[in-house]
Specification:
The chain is an all-alpha fold. The protein has two helices and no strands.
Length: 72
């Protein structure tokens, strides 16, 4: 953990300082999880938008294919 790497000697680290370091670490982990969640949502929204854009094109392509089939 951060506290161990900073002091290397737990006997010189006070209990209060140790809990402060633990709290800092927990806050950082929470922040990272929130960022990951936000990035996943952003990617999901971007994919949905991309699919919305592609969907009309696919519909036109399918219509063209269906027209060719009905002509033959």
């Amino acid at each position: 953990m951060t506290a161990i790497s900073e002091t290397r000697n737990l006997t010189t680290l006070t209990t209060v300082a140790l809990f402060d370091k633990l709290r800092e670490h927990e806050l950082e982990m929470t922040r990272l999880k929130e960022m990951e969640s936000f990035e996943k949502k952003s990617r999901s929204l971007a994919l949905k938008k991309k699919l919305e854009i592609l969907s009309p094109v696919k519909r036109v392509q399918m219509s063209a294919v269906m027209l060719k089939i009905s002509i033959y």
